[in-house]
Amino acid sequence: MISEKENDLEFNKLVAKHYDFFTHSEKRIAEFISQNHDEVAFMSAAEVANKLNLSEPTMLRFAKRLGFDSYPAMRIMLQTKVRNLANHSARIRSSLDDLRNAGDLYEQLVTSEIDFLTESLQTLDRDAIKQATELLRTHERIYVFGLGPSVSLVDQLDIRLTRSLKHVIPLRTSGRELIEPLLLMTGDDLVIAIAFHSVNPLLELVLDRANEFKVPVILITDTLGDLIGSKATVTLASRRGPVSAFHSLTIPMTIINTLLLALTAADQDRIMNNLDQLDQLRESVKRTSNNTNSRKKN
Questions:
Q1: Contacts of 53 (CB under 8 A, 6+ apart)
Q2: Single pTM value for the model
């Protein structure tokens, strides 16, 4: 059993270790805690159970499955994690407090983005970026998964990776448009999965399919890294703020731009040559269009 004193353990890594063996209710609890750990750390088992429409004994069984003596013992670990994050965030934000309090809505939003971009300088794993770049360089066909607000990120990767001579298969809708392309997946492919807050069934389907064929996975996320665990080959994770707050895509967009620039630097001659050809095709289309318009006028 995990004692109340062992607060230095990383809670999400502990959850990731057991996640595949959780019941449906236990997965709901794990995902709720991951999304709301600031709040859950100071809630009783009964309060969390009420929010999830579960029983209090279910909460106790969840804690014991993770190896804790009791639910309060698990909550102590969560409280320690929240305090550590709060201390780190306080240091980052201290120099910007005056601007935030005095500024208008636009200033507040920009300041918040600066906060989390600055935090990402400390938390984003640079070795993981190098590893992800190498996977991009060495794989020609790339599946890119993202739903909801993440579709814009999928679109950006689709355009930019295609210009980098990659064959991109976007997975941005539910239903057959997502499922049927998975039938083409082979061990030579690469998957980029973009997901935030919760592990939905479609994300699980894509990850399981990739793992079945031993396809490497680059995960771009905020809080899901530890929950997904070894299903991802490389995890690029950085917080975007509390789940209850408004979230922009600035952080994941910056991560994606970093990968694209790093890929261009790693394969510069080939990619730049392709971009030159793209410019030539654009000029050809422009000339054709101008000639057509000229003939119409005459």
A1: none
A2: 0.67
